[in-house]
Batch of 3 targets.
Target 1
Amino acid sequence: MNEKRGSWYLLTGLIIGLIIGLILSATALPVQYINTDPSTLSDDAKAAYRIMVAQAYLAEGDGGRARARLALLQEVNPAEVVIAQAQSMLAESGNDASARALALLAAAVSEPSLSITPLPMLTPMAAEVIPATPAASGTSSAEITQGPTGTPGATNTPRPTATPQPTLGSPYVMSGEPETICDPLPAVSLLQIIVLDASGQAVPGVRVEISQASGGIETFYTGLYPEVSPGYADYLFLPDAVYTIRIGESGQPVTGLSAPLCGNDAENKPAYGSLRVIFTQP
Amino acid sequence: MQNKRQIGFMIAILIGLAAGLVIGWLLIKTPIRNASLSSLRGDYQADYVLMVAEKFAVDQDILTATALLRDIASSDPAASIKNALILGQQLGYSPRELQLITLLETAVGASSSNLISATPSVEVAP
């Protein structure tokens, strides 16, 4: 008895293979892209790129270039994204220096007129550089012409890691007395900090250290709310807690800060206002 | 006869698989996303190297610099610096920028040599 089943099995095999091929191309064997631009990076790679842009900004102080680099990521609101990343890093107790760099970058994006003092270079730079023509072998090297003194070129002697100090100068001190904000009564009780330099300009990226008498120290930076001011930072007051804050690396601690009592609310419970403290460089 | 059908079925699956992969890779256009830093175009990679060089110039942290370079060239960070130098010259990087990259290249090279010389050699007992 001859069985006549035709060639449908070939079509079945083809369809099965096609489906497997499509699934593999979408999952296990996706297309490997090359020559992409920064806007196509994954979220993690974008975060790493932003940190790199921020750290380069601290090193060279070129806000225009930092903004141009950040624009390559093609984000709708780059400042907000940078701020969110900085806040997330601080919340996760991530790299403090990177969070500060991001805060400064956010301020630079929000305030194009902002200028910072670049970090000092630990690498001695030669007086003049004559770029070499790329060799035929594909290797390259830039020839460094020594300075007029003829001193030996840069030797990479290990040095201590520099602490980013975008704003150099005298320690910050409290200007006047803290201002109590009761009218209108804020929805949440905040310690509002504004940091200004000697010329009265708001300073982003300044470290604020806050501690409670009961223990525990937290750190945050100015510049994470550029829509308020590049030199602004705030902290949520806990009722009845007493805080000590220190601005910058060498600022004097300001003690005895607590949420101001602004009478009673509609339910006859204590209502707390906010406290605004301004720090300046003498 | 049964064998012939089985072989034909397998060949049909393989042809379908190849066609599926070609369609998936070439014909179905999906927006590029989740790319890695190593997939960036050469000029963007050169700018990334410049950023690493600028950071290195202020903190002299060669381990971090090497780790950052590995993000764009996992196997050979030094090669990414060489490429950045060549491209930087073509793209008109300033002498200062080229110098920063050169200093990074020197430091990475010195760091690699130190690592090689510090690696204990294995002696085989007779």
Note: Chain B touches chain A through 64 residues (CB under 8 Å).
Target 2
Amino acid sequence: MLKILKYSFYDLIRSRWTYIYCGFYLLFTLSLLWLSSDLSKVVISLMNVVLLLCPLIATMFGVMYYYNSREFTELLLAQPIRRTSIFFGQYLGVAGSLSASWLIGTGIPFILYGVFGSAQAGNFFTLMLVGVALSFIFSGLAFLIALNNENRIKGFGLAILVWLFFAVIYDGLLLLSLAWFSEYPLEKFSLTASMLNPIDLSRILILLKLDISALMGFTGAVFRKFLGTGFGMSVSLIVLTLWIILPTLGIRRVSLRKDF
Amino acid sequence: MITIHHLQKSFGKNHVLKGVDLAFDKPGITAVLGPNGSGKTTLIKSILGMVLPDDGNIEVAGKSVRNRWEYRKQIAYLPQIARFPDNLTVKELLSMIKDLRGKAASDQHLIDLFELTPFLGSRLSNLSGGTRQKVNLVLTFMYDCPIIILDEPTAGLDPISMVRLKELIENQRAAGKTILVTTHVMSLVEELAEEVVYLLEGKIHFRGSLKVLKETYGESSVERAIASLLEQQKNTPAFSSNGQPAFVTA
Amino acid sequence: MLHPHIIKTLTATAFLMMAVALQGRVIEVCPECPVSSISEAIELAQPCDTVLVKKGTYSEGNILIGKDLTLFGEGNPILDGGGNSEILTIHSQFFHIEGFTIQNIGTSYTQDRAGIRMKESQNFTIKNNRLLDAFFAIYLEKSKDGVVENNFVLGQAENEAGSGNAIHLWYCENIIVKDNHLAGHRDGIYLEFVDNSRVTGNIAENNLRYGLHFMFSNDNFYHHNTFRNNGAGVAVMYSRRIDMFQNVFEKNWGAASYGLLLKEIHDSRIEQNSFLENTVGIFTETSNRLTYVRNTFAHNGWAMKISGGCQQNVLTQNNFMSNSFDLAVQIAGMDNNYDGNFWSDYSGYDLDRDGVGDVPHRPMKLFSYIVTRTPESIVLMRSLFVDILNFSEKVSPIFTPENVVDHAPKMKQTSGIAQGAETPGPKIDPAAKPGHSLTQNALTIK
């Protein structure tokens, strides 16, 4: 698996799309840091970008990479290599190269700016972590979708739909249901619902650092316990890890059953 | 070397293999023939473990292949369409496959044979279809495996390479390998194959030597024999009442 | 170099000689002296005398003082209430107390015990004392023309009902509360029916309820204070003409917690204050004709929540920087003016380069309205969906009050952020500088 991972990774980091992706983050972060003196503002802007772009690009890259390397995958399948090794290797290659682009593209400007030792160091680490987690989660989901759909158009469409669902539609539905049932106690519901969406979950991880003053304005005991202590942070991290593991298990399951 | 018992496979409603029993136990070249959609590629992919059978069993060297991968060390496979990661060069691809399969290989003489040296530094995306096929052939033959499976090996090859390929296959036969070939080029079958397996609608319609094939249908060439086989197929029921292939001869 | 203790003694002696020359005798009190109790010394004292209390612990219960005196502690003498007594109750027309540690007053649910109580007094100075574990620490009632300066007050308050205020003023006039450090009480400074007074340079932190609490007190001025991490921030209620200048309000977190709570405050000015990391920077209700100018709101949950009944308020030249929500205006139809502020999330442009954005800014987001109605929806903060909602609302307001708009948003922030009170240094230990020009202070009261 490590060999496949290595080749997928090399293959991808030499692709111009990876350079474009990395360069985009680099330019974006540099210009944000250049334009704004307030590091926390930069973190907020980047948060909006990471929540939107990381999943989108990971989804697209994942689906694209799978379909583009299908024949090569068949070549590999005929080699004496374990099936799961091939797909895990490729998936980790995609997720790894995307994460590397993200870490390099945003990390270097921040480090040059001197984020270590500033008050924003914690936020910066959370941001980096969330970017990596989202890259893994959504490229995993993309692989799963592509594995389940031989038809490229269908696969692409479904992947975009999944992204759109998690990025926008889910929140809309959540907000509607919160408004609809506003007479009921909704603390647990709203927290659980946000856990079930990796983008929301990542967002909350950042909010816990960035907007804790506003979050503390709520009376509910569950909220207070969740937000005010390390409890929320730990639960979020655990669920985020689960979100990485679940698509991986799916990839394993499908890859063991699929005909090529 | 390869034993196939009652192999069944459907893709959705499409029943591709309807109980295939086959054994390749002697060294030599077998041509797997049949019209498009008859199940040739599915059969080959089943042997390679790329397609998972619904029912039946495949054994390679006496062991079932289900959920195993080590047995593929004994198989060299030439896929039908050769597409590789676009960003790699030929050299990198070769070293990568060597890296993956682990053991040393005799690739240099194959590179010379197909005159690939000038292309070693080129990216695979910049190669013509023929050159790719040559790279594909190098990848297949650089391992010394007892079983060789070739899916349309001549696609896109120039005449010189074609001649060299035939020589190569001959050499492998001489080395006592079990070789399966699918092709639409009947002259190739005529030149190389000792035996023919004819698949039709997911069943083995004919199995036997070239000689028997030609005699059975009273034709002088394989091409004609196949043509009249298909003619006959249209007019008479293909299978006998016990469900066995009608024209199998040992 | 002279030893600090010698300097202290010399200073004290010099001052006492001066005091004696000006005002009267000195009566020394120490555990081994002929006069060994403070009560006895006070009994002996004539008006304008000085009672000099030397190092030691004095557990005399409630000491009643009805004379014009100077009570001076040398070497940080301790007055201990034993947990069940008020300690000093003073009724005087000219009084100075300095240099004591007053401790163990004890909680009472029936009487408001204090460490130092000034009752119907005037011309007094309470300075450089430490008040530890007090129920009420310094309690001024019906007094005027006094200074409470540089005291260190640390309580152990656990709940609001069982705790008193650090500095409590009731029916007072012309009082200066200056450079005190107040922590661990119910309110840091409490003023009820107090007029024409000044609160400055204080640090109030970790108090259960408010750092500073005004009730029915008019014409006051508080400035350069720091209010940090108090239960509910600072409350100014039912008062008029309060000037609030250069204070820092920070880290007041909680569901009913505010940097500054304004309730029925009229005709006041809030200028150059800093509101940092509060759940709500300013909450204002039924407050009219207030001017908010050059304040900085940064990293608050809500910079300002404006509830009902607020008319003719002016917000201008304030900086709103990186707050989760800048503004929540809960009722439509109030005629407040929001022009000329700096909003860090202003997305407009300034083509004519006059420093004023060419596009009006709507500081009240739709999501701010949604969260007020459905608090749980806070989990959706900063999500793309919410951004889309906010954007569409910005384009055509439906839910948020239409007149909450800055027609001339500034492109650059206003400079001059409040520094508040400096962090406590030597002033924690008043014993470090005893006898610091008593008469001067007493005379500054005007």
Note: Residues 424-446 of chain C have pLDDT under 50 and may be disordered.
Target 3
Amino acid sequence: MRLEKLPAEMALRLSELECPDFKGTPWVEGKPLSQRRVAIVSSAGLVVRGDPVFRGRDADYRAIPGATQANDLLCSHISINFDRNGFQEDWNVVFPLDRLSELAAERTIGSVATTHYSFMGATDPMQMVDGAREVAGKLKADNVDAVLLTSV
Amino acid sequence: MSALGHYLEEEGLATVAVALIRPQAEHTRPPRALWVPFELGRPIGPPSDPAFQKRVILAAIGMLVEGGGPARIADFPDDDPREMQDPSWNAPIDLYAGAGDAAALADAMQTEALAMAPAYAQSCTRRARSTVGLSGLPPAECSGYIATWLRGQQPASPVAGMSSALALRFAIDDLKAYALEAALAPAGKPSSRQLGDWLWNGTALGAGLQQLRRDCLAGDDERLKTVAAFFVPALRVSPA
């Protein structure tokens, strides 16, 4: 987002939004992309139709099976201050599963995860730690070794 | 989102975050972040543009095999071409010419929702999908439920396990999605600004939600005051 396109007050609020302080930053290296198994983890409050929607600043997460069809993915993010038209027209704007599948088919990446995950991005990140560690365990059990994080 | 990068990478998973707000990524310092200049809500860029989207994804996942970290931020260079207005796009419906009191507005909103049904159906067929469904109510019931609130009544929740205030919020989310998906039926590639201008300035739904927001905030029901903040985007709030 080019913050200069927003009203000054909103740009300032977004740029000064409280973020957690981390003492260091971890760093994991790995295989070439053509051998990586890639998952999407989104903070867009995505839910599979029929699963419980995010009702507020929930700290848990939802699983999105790789076989989910575009018609069955909903966005229940609590914020209404971001564009939803893009997602309504094309889910890849937020959840680029079709693009990852194409990259796997053309062998740019090794494969695509069996299951993807979504959190509610408006939640205090410190409350997501347990859920994130649980998701990490599930991703590793699926042999995922690369995660594309998408926010809204 | 950048915090999730820390948590997952600490568990041994290589991550790259597509970041929309650069100062947040700079502060949180995730292992890798690709800042993109697109509007909020569009991390991968323009809808219905697979080639552009693929460039964004390749720029992001390419960082997984590059050095320079940790806490590396790269910038995607290109703007979203869909931010440009499309003059060929026309609104799917143009019924609203202002309404009198809240009851008239409620009536107009329901009439308008019914009139949008063909465009919505056409749009669903073309996209093979709909994002309506958070409340679990069909659009006509969403419209009826919102209209009842707009008329000053306080109906019981029509959704099992959901309070009336929460059902109102999700019914509003669904009806906005219904209208905006109907707006995708006409030919063209409208920008989000075009669609928003139509919804908030040219429909009974937009006017009705502004009115309902004002009514809820002026009342003394704290639950309604809370959910009223989620009816109208901050940039679209009309004072009167």
Note: Chain B has two domains: 2-83, 102-236.
